[in-house]
Automatic annotation (TrEMBL):
Name recorded for this polypeptide: DNA-(apurinic or apyrimidinic site) lyase
Organism of this sequence: Cellulomonas persica
Keywords, alphabetical: DNA damage, DNA repair, DNA-binding, Glycosidase, Hydrolase, Lyase, Metal-binding, Multifunctional enzyme, Zinc, Zinc-finger
A GO molecular function held by the record: damaged DNA binding
EC numbers on record: 4.2.99.18
Length: 319
């Protein structure tokens, strides 16, 4: 599942290329036909993300809410703006898929692929633009120069502003959107330390803290040297606050690079390699059975609330 850093990058790409423009909105797949008809011809006024939720606000007052879930992704075609200085725009953002264009998502990049006569993200030939939809495109947002295709989301709905605010109100704090990080951290700590649920499960609860997925969960807990099965109420205040502060450090880097690099021991050269080699990026995630970088104990993988949990039984202990 795409984690919070990816959704923030999607919001920034849409802000750069579609906000302020009147959009042609369609549903090639047909499953969002009524919503597309409601939004078609409106001007997009704002693109933002909170946790794993994307909110697109239109001049008429409608808000398109998208949650990518496990399989959702956006593909971009045409002229794209760079959202990171010195870096070319990436043509796909979200969950992996066969024959995808250059993908910006959970933990790797793939090679460009020819889809529908155009390579996603490459400036277009007017004679070929817009490309024909490929596969099950739920929503297409289009201008004369740029197309954004949404596929496979778990949620895609048109809300009014009050309904959108209600969704946000149910979410925990997100470091990328909070204006007062100290107050937000205190709230996250309160939500963790009043529960008897294992902290590894709480970090995945979007009502506790927004945006953390399976990779960041495993890595944050390892960096804190905290046993994932520790009940939230047994996590010391300073350890819980440290989890928030570490999340607030890691998230901007993930947004900037498009990947989750959580090992702070990498040299500059190793870090550059980690941008393309996912096996270098993480302390424990995806390393089941391999020796812990610190103590040599084989990394354990087990299930927690139906998701795979990676941790080191030696380095990560209960307070």
């Amino acid at each position: 599942m795409p984690e919070g850093h990816t959704v923030h990058r999607i919001a920034r790409q849409l802000d750069a290329d579609l906000v302020g423009r009147t959009l042609r909105v369609s549903s090639p797949q047909g499953r969002f036909a009524a919503g597309a008809a409601r939004l078609d011809g409106q001007t997009l006024t704002r693109s933002s993300a909170v946790g794993k939720h994307l909110f697109l606000e239109f001049a008429g007052g409608d808000v398109l809410r998208v949650h990518l879930g496990l399989y959702g992704a956006w593909d971009f075609y045409g002229r794209l703006s760079s959202i990171v200085p010195g870096e070319s725009a990436w043509g796909s953002l979200g969950a992996p898929r066969l024959r995808r264009a250059v993908r910006m998502g959970e933990d790797e990049r793939e090679s460009p692929a020819d889809e529908g006569g155009l390579v996603a993200g490459v400036p277009h030939d007017d004679a070929l633009f817009p490309p024909e939809p490929v596969g099950q495109v739920r929503v297409r947002l289009a201008t004369d120069e740029t197309v954004a295709d949404l596929r496979g989301p778990s949620a895609c709905e048109v809300l009014d502003p009050a309904e959108a605010e209600a969704v946000v109100a149910r979410l925990g704090p997100d470091p990328a959107t909070e204006t007062d990080l100290e107050a937000a951290g205190a709230e996250m700590v309160r939500r963790v330390r009043t529960r008897g649920v294992p902290v590894g499960q709480l970090l995945m609860d979007q009502a506790v803290v927004a945006g953390i997925g399976n990779i960041y969960r495993a890595e944050l807990l390892f960096r804190a040297r905290l046993d994932p099965w520790t009940p939230g109420k047994q996590v010391p205040h300073d350890v819980a606050l440290g989890l928030w502060e570490d999340w607030a450090r890691l998230l901007p880097d993930g947004i900037a690079t498009g990947v989750m690099i959580t090992r702070e021991d990498l040299s500059p050269d190793e870090r550059r390699l980690a941008l393309t080699d996912k096996m270098l990026r993480h302390w424990v995630y995806g390393r089941a059975g391999l020796p812990c970088y610190l103590c040599g104990t084989p990394i354990t993988v087990e299930d927690m609330a139906t998701r795979k949990l990676y941790h080191c039984r030696t380095c990560q202990t209960r307070p």
